[in-house]
Specification:
Structural class: alpha/beta
Helix content: 40-55%
Shape: globular
Order of helices and strands: EHEHEHHEHEHHEHHHHH
Number of strands: 6
Strand content: 5-15%
Mean pLDDT: 92
Length: 252
């Protein structure tokens, strides 16, 4: 059976919601999930990806193009300040390769992407005028997408672009990643090194895995000669081992 719809899944609520909608429309046998593994996710994310695969009875292909550590070493810096080299190298480029290979194997298909206007002001502006029922050429959604994908018959759809967070969670009815219930508003790299200091602190003092990620990042800081923290105050707190004194602790 050929693949009609590919859904990039991160372990987050929006991509899971897209996967549910795709299966509802085309059936699990015609839908394929794509998980780009950055080797920087919380163990709960990997467990949730496996839960999704079993719960929906859908195939999820794992693609790994390296790790966040390797990308930071290659760039000589941490992501941030508009530089999202980790996203590009570990998610965008590997996805393009996957789509190209699949289209060469079987012909065109749709890619359902879980982006929403409500997520941020930037996304509200970027996806203004987009509607959830339309099919778009890949480069019409993301201007740097190669036109060979369109020529191969690949089309993008944004099935929840107009949805609210409440609508997404209402659809999932408690099936979303447990990290949301533990207080995280986004799921992906743990933490996203391009996020603000508050988000990084939240992850680093969350649990034992978070603390191991902090030690991992400290090693990278020494190698790169750069700090992962944006503010001087956060740098001083980290150096003085104050990072965990005001954290909520693990609530999973």
């Amino acid at each position: 059976m050929s693949v009609e719809i590919v859904v990039p899944v991160s372990g987050g609520k929006d991509s899971q919601c897209c996967l549910e909608l795709a299966i509802e429309e085309a059936g699990a046998g015609s839908v394929r999930g794509l998980f780009n593994d950055t080797q920087f996710e919380h163990p709960v994310v990997y467990q949730h990806i496996d839960y999704i695969r079993r719960y929906y009875g859908v195939q999820i292909d794992r693609v790994c193009a390296g790790s966040v550590d390797e990308v930071c070493r290659k760039a000589g810096r941490f992501p941030g300040g508009g530089a999202r080299h980790c996203t590009r190298e570990l998610k965008i480029v590997p996805s393009r390769r996957y789509y190209r290979a699949l289209s060469e194997e079987q012909g065109g298909f749709q890619v359902w992407i879980g982006v929403r206007q409500q997520e941020s002001e930037a996304r509200k502006e970027r996806y203004s005028g987009r509607v959830d029922g339309e099919l778009y050429l890949p480069h019409e959604v993301f201007t740097d997408e190669p036109k060979y994908l369109a020529a191969a018959g690949v089309r993008y759809r944004l099935p929840i672009v107009e949805w609210t967070t409440a609508e997404v969670l209402g659809r999932l009815e408690g099936r979303e990643n447990p990290l949301y219930r533990a207080g995280f508003d986004r799921v992906g790299c743990f933490p996203c090194l391009a996020s603000g200091d508050g988000k990084k602190r939240q992850a680093f003092y969350f649990d034992e895995f978070g603390r191991s990620q902090l030690e991992r990042v400290r090693g990278l800081e020494e190698e790169l000669g750069r700090s992962v923290w944006e503010s001087q105050r956060s740098r001083v707190r980290a150096e003085n081992q104050e990072l965990f004194t005001d954290g909520p602790g693990c609530s999973l």
